[in-house]
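Q: What structure does this chain adopt?
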Amino acid sequence: MLLCRRSTIFVPSFIAKTSPNLFSYFTKKTHALSLFKNSPIRCNYSYLFGKPTHDLFVNKKAKFCNLAISGTSRRNEKAVGGNVMSLREKKKARREAPEGVLKFKLDACSKRGDVVEGLRLYDEARKNGVELNQHHYNVLLYLCSQNGGENVSDLRKQGFEIFQQMIIDKVPPNEATFTNAARLASAMEDPEMAFDLVKQMKGFGILPKLRSYGPPLFGFCKKGMADKAYEVDAHMIEYGVVAEEPELSALLKVSADVNNADKVYELLHRLRTSVRQATESTVGIIEDWFKSKHAAKTGKENWDVSKVKEGVARGGGGWHGQGWLGCGQWRVVRTQMDKEGVCGSCGERLACIDIDPRETENFAISLSKLALGRDVKADFIRFQDWLQRHGPFDAVVDGANLSLINQQTFSFSQLNSVVHRLHDMSPSKKLPLVILHKSRVTGGPAQSPYNKKLLERWKNSGALYVTPAGSNDDWYWLYAAVCYKCLLVTNDEMRDHLFQLLGTSFFPRWKEKHQVRLSVSRSGIALQMPPPYSIVIQESENGSWHVPTTTNDDLETPRQWLCATRPIKS
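A:
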């Protein structure tokens, strides 16, 4: 290993040549020296990740690629005796090579959280000359960053030594490498180091993820360093990383703790747009803010009513964005809304926030593109053509979901009851569109004479579409409901990976206004229609706030709301 010396700090010579300016930077980070004081190689993280040169991680011998068999080419791998290896033989050879065995054992340690065994395997591998690749190093860094206990400081130290060795070995880092290193820094209560590591990703062409920002953001918030937390937040926004409730909640708390009323106001609106309904922990932070003395001192005694009304109209209702209105002590109450959206505490009626028709059209287009990319293209195009011939509809029914609610087997009778109820409610007196997978109409209960007649009647009425084998019927019923801006009857909460692909704040707003849920009891079925108000954080024209809590899937459990009001001066 080549080392160059400047003062008492040792760094790999190739890194020193790459980043000569970082020597002065390191002297400002003297607190990090203690990390490596007992290490044979003293090196600060900033040395390791100075501005990279083009060939910093180029390995002329190609021995650090992710293939377990080093020194071979994918195009020219041959077995002993000159015979070309089959794909199965190649995989087996990679698994049984020392690098492959190490990967298997480290992955097992990762699943168990066994950092002691992981470090033992690392020491053994280096002793035996096993060449570690990116995956090996990332698993080791992850183990060191996740574990605590009595020897936590030693673990962090070993983690950074492994991180250092990865760079000395010229193994290229990826997002996971930087994120795990940032977690190590955060565990040492050094969010500044964690943030610097995130910022250095850019030099390697790596885009940070939301998880990358967690260590510095939560670290700064924990220390009450609000301005530094805002820097991390600004960096996230610059790179298009959208904060979720944990990040916004942490920013909200630190802003409230330092009495930054403007930031609290901004973050409440960010929660409104991206989270909509808050968990109990976040509601607790909001509640504490409204009960604080600083919140009582914050706000305008006089404001332009016309501007407030314009803001409400421009935003579609439910908020105005004109800042804190009113002054004085807040009255903070946990309460519920009645069926019409009237607050049980202050008597204010919540708004039903409009959806821009253009948003719906754009959402339908993006949904179609996703479906065409993930389902059989010809099948989905055939469905779109069918919709044009048979639509519009007042409601779309997720047949499989509704037929199995409170049922041991698929119940066509229950599904038919829903169809009849929707037909009676329909303004056009048209049957709803029932979506069923092919497997549901070709076997089992579908073979009974009564159910055969039922299916035939729906089909002849243009009210049944059968999705083909191999397709995902979720795409079909969701697209039809969005396309015709109609009701969607399903108890599917649409939270799985498929719906996360939609990646938009529009989807929960659309669901709230269009999803109908079914409840089944001894007295029969009941349809839970969309509420006549929006279940989202709302800011009223007089300055009061209403914050909904998240609930489970129990339709009978009333939702709790936080109501914050203060007297209006006439």
